[in-house]
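Lines hold sequence, tokenised fold; shown next:
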Amino acid sequence: MALAPAAVEALTAAVTGPVLFQGDPGIPAEIGAFNTFPAHDPEVLVAAESEGDVVAAVRFALENNLAVRTVSTGHGSPTPIVDGVLVSLRRFHGVSIDPDARIAVLRGGTRWGEVIEAAALHGLAPITGSSATVGAIGYMLGGGLGPLARTFGFSSDWARGFRVVSGEGQVVVANEFENADLFWALRGGKGGFGVVTEMTVGLVPLTTLYAGSVLFDAPHIEAVYKRWADWSSDLPETVTTAAALASFPPIEAIPEPMRGKTLLAVRYAFIGDAAEGERLFEPIRSAAPVYLDGVRVMGPADVAEIHSDPADPGPSWDRGMMLDRVDGAFVDTLLGAIGPGTHTPIMACEVRRVGGATERDVPGGSAVGGRGAGYALVLIGAPDPALFDAVLPSVADGLTGALAPWVSAVTTPNWAGGFGVPGTFEASWPADTRERLAAIRADYDPAGLFPFAPSP
């Protein structure tokens, strides 16, 4: 649509950060997306440097009948944004720590790495995601299952408050005392409520943990995976673990020990005495000859090394789901589809053991979906955009069908892959939670400014 020159002039005068318009060659660099596949080219890009910039962007959109979407680090939207107003928060970041209160206050575009490093200086740690480059707030809004989830729960359980620019262009505070309905929704309801400009999270005292990954070579994958499936089903809440099957291409960018190999990584995090952590992990270490061993005593600042998620931008494709259980038959089905020698375009598959603290809701309740699941599964496709539209979805559909006996009826929104697969939006929450979320979105965004639910 054509924007009135007076409205454009008023917006650029009100915003301290850059304002770019559709077709501007500076848009890709300004967004700086982690997932480089979707080519975002909105009608208006507001690169916010303050909460006031966000308010101005939302009010401009409201006055001009434009949708508003938000991007921080680019781990989010897997589809191109080509209309409306896109608010980029990557310039608006930073964290402050109150060590006495054990809280961190984060600006809208803050990544987990900033929070982890700042908290570690005080012997504290956030209940973070597995990647240090993910935007903390976008991750928390969807619940968040990180490497310490069984011990400390969903990451969103540690949210203590938010500042939000609503669909009416007003700054709203949401916590257990103010706008408690919105606070409930923001802890797991994901999106459609406004632009979160600030979040307060609780921290835990943590100076060391016994954690990392051990890798096993292809001949031992089946035996180790079945041992892990049995072992992981009966663990204390002090342990969070995952099994990640990965096929590494034979290219120089891959470290030489993994280059061209199919390996199984068993990821492990234990909160407590290292000797006890080593004892509990012994059934995995003794399951087969260990190819590479990186489990050790580490500081909380090193928590991202447990999963070693990629830190560099690139095209990415994923599909996720929750699982009720994992057993030997599940392992046979999974390896038969994407195990060694199958020549699949699925580059990696991680299955995380959840449960424990994730099963218990917070006082006052929250909107997070998936508390009843025992495991979470994510598929990572080969980073070739030519496969994204048809090949990878087809393979994933076939695998999902084969795994149907183990797939949970309710998943969690961070595992939904942007709701691109029919039914994933509806499955991300129980029906009553989904209905309550819709009502709260209507209260705080009466004009429907923030698109969220997939198109019918």
Q: What stands out?
A: The mean pLDDT is 93.
